[in-house]
């Protein structure tokens, strides 16, 4: 009987150990600090970590910012941060607070642009029937809108301003500059001037006033 010789080759696979995870170093944060909560329940408190101290991978830490500053530009006063394999998932930074509320309104104007970051400003445009008579600057300062607002004067003339006895005001409430209001009097009243018309001149009625007078018996 012929004996067959089999050679068995053993493959030895060496599995390298997982790379050692290096700790993160606590960074210096302008207008903020990095720390963790220690204790339990009512005794739980925030403890600041010193700069360059080592942090274990995955350790629960928090970035806390000074008043008027926000972590990563978010509206919270503090935010959770994490270290992964020796690197911060996001570089801890405290940014000046943004103006998250709407800019202050001003009569007869609309906001066309608002930069809500610290130091940003607001652009107001007067409505079509108004004219800007005062220029001003509104600025976002650490989350609060500050400064003056522009003044936009309404150039329309209101019929409600014509408070004269016997005058029929009609349905139209406002007249644009240059437009005229033809006077009509109630029964028992007469025009004080024939074909009397009142003209709107940049927010002011001009013409013969009073437009109507009580008729004689």
Task: Report what the structure shows.
The structure is a single chain. The chain has 217 residues and is mainly β. It folds into three domains: 72 residues, Complement Module, domain 1; 46 residues, no CATH class; 58 residues, Complement Module, domain 1 (Ribbon). Helix content is 0%, strand content 38%. The chain has a four-stranded antiparallel sheet, with no helix packed on it. A three-stranded antiparallel sheet has the order 19-21-22, with no helix packed on it. The chain is rod-shaped and about 100 Å long.
Give the terminus-to-terminus CA distance.
154 Å
Number of helices: 0
* Helix and strand composition category: mainly beta
Largest sheet: 4 strands, antiparallel
Sum up the overall morphology in one term: rod-shaped
Number of strands: 23
CATH topology of the largest domain: Complement Module, domain 1
Q: Spans of 5+ residues with little confidence (pLDDT < 50)?
A: 1-18
Name given to the CATH homologous superfamily of the largest domain: Complement Module, domain 1
Strand content: 35-45%
Oligomer: single chain
Specify Rg, calculated over alpha carbons.
38 Å
**Mean residue pLDDT:** 87
Please give the CATH architecture of the largest domain.
Answer: Ribbon
**Biggest β-sheet: strands ordered side by side in the sheet:** 3-2-5-7
Order of helices and strands: EEEEEEEEEEEEEEEEEEEEEEE
């Amino acid at each position: 009987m012929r004996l067959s010789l089999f050679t068995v080759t053993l493959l030895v696979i060496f599995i390298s150990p997982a790379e050692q995870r290096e700790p993160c170093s606590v960074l210096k944060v302008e207008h903020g600090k990095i720390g963790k909560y220690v204790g339990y329940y009512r005794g739980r408190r925030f403890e600041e970590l010193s700069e360059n101290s080592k942090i274990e991978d995955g350790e629960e830490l928090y970035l806390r910012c000074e008043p008027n500053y926000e972590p990563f530009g978010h509206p919270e006063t503090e935010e959770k941060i994490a270290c992964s394999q020796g690197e911060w998932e996001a570089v801890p930074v405290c940014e000046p607070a943004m103006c998250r509320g709407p800019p202050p309104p001003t009569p007869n104007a609309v906001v066309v642009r608002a930069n809500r970051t610290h130091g940003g400003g607001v652009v107001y445009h007067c409505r079509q029937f108004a004219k800007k008579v005062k220029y001003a600057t509104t600025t976002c300062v650490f989350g609060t809108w500050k400064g003056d607002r522009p003044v936009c004067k309404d150039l329309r003339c209101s019929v409600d301003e014509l408070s004269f006895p016997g005058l029929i005001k009609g349905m139209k409430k406002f007249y644009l500059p240059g437009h005229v209001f033809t006077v009509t009097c109630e029964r028992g009243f007469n025009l004080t001037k024939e074909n009397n018309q009142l003209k709107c001149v940049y927010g002011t009625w001009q013409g013969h006033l009073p437009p109507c007078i009580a008729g004689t018996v």
